[in-house]
Specification:
Helix content is 55%, strand content 14%. α3 links the parallel β2 and β3. The chain has a 4-stranded mixed β-sheet with strand order 1-4-2-3, with helices on both faces. The protein is α+β, with helices and mostly antiparallel strands. It has one domain: Ribosomal protein L30/S12 (60s Ribosomal Protein L30, Chain: A). α2 runs parallel beside α3.
Amino acid sequence: MTKEERIRGYLGLAARAGRMESGEFSVEKAVKSGRAHLVLIAEDASDNTKKKFQNMCAYHEVPYLLFGDRETLGHVIGREFRATACVTDIKLAKAIREL
């Protein structure tokens, strides 16, 4: 299994367990409230979106990861297209970061 496949598996698990937020507004709210433990940003998200979330994550000390494109990120978590998502479970976030 490749790293990306394992990350996809963990993200799917987090989504099924209800331990994820997706979409810019929900992710921003989770980061600012301290519930987000890992933020995922699609590589094809707009430069403005990438910069906004990278700066927000740096300020709130939340790790982030550039992952796939919007279609892939959305598909993995069972949605249509998503530019951003976050994992709210600390153990799943740690497992993904370690990969």
